[in-house]
Design a protein that fits this description.
Elements: H1 7-15, H2 20-27, H3 31-37, H4 44-61
């Protein structure tokens, strides 16, 4: 079985109950664009930024 790119981001968002479209909105991009970006492995800096955004969104929803 093949591992999806950025599986760590996808799993983290799922655990925090944050939708990908919410991440896209926070980044100022279309919901479909975030899905396309996640098809290829992100650089470490980009991953860190996305993880921060997930944390921000999750903290607002608590």
């Amino acid at each position: 079985m093949r591992v999806r790119a950025n599986q760590d981001i996808r799993q983290y968002a799922k655990e925090k109950k944050v939708f990908l479209w919410e991440i896209g909105e926070a980044l100022g991009i279309n919901a479909f664009s975030i899905t396309r970006r996640l098809r290829r492995e992100l650089r470490a800096e980009e991953k860190e930024r996305v993880m921060q955004i997930i944390d921000e969104i999750a903290s607002r929803e608590e």
